Structure formats: C-alpha cells, structure tokens
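Hi, here's the filled form for the chain we discussed.

Project: internal
Contact: R.S.
Residues: 65
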Amino acid sequence: MFGFTGGETPETLKRKKGYLADAKNNWNFLTHYDLSTIKTKGQLCNMIKVRRAISEEEAVADVEK
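And the returned structure, exactly as it came back:
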C-alpha cells in the first residue's frame, strides 16, 4: 500500500508517495515508519483502530472515506 520495495516504476513511486502524503494528512498520529510498513488496507485499518482506540467498524469507515 505505502511501502516501497525497490524496483518500482517512476509512476508507481509517484502514486505511493501521494498515498503516503494523504495518509499523513488524514492520520497525523501515524509515523513515516508506520506507514512504510503497511502493505494492505486491513493493516491500515488495524493500526488506526489500535492507535485511536476505536472499533474495527469505525476504523474501516475512516479508511474508506
């Protein structure tokens, strides 16, 4: 999702950097390291759920908007 694995095309890097910037704006409590380790939507939802101490449904709704 946000993680960089190396060997990505310039277009993929640009897209991932955009996603990373959007995520930092939406969830300023997540660190750059947190975001760089997230590979799936489920991992993002879980991290938001844990860090904000909210339900899974709330976290999923937050990610989907």
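Let me know if anything looks off before we file it.
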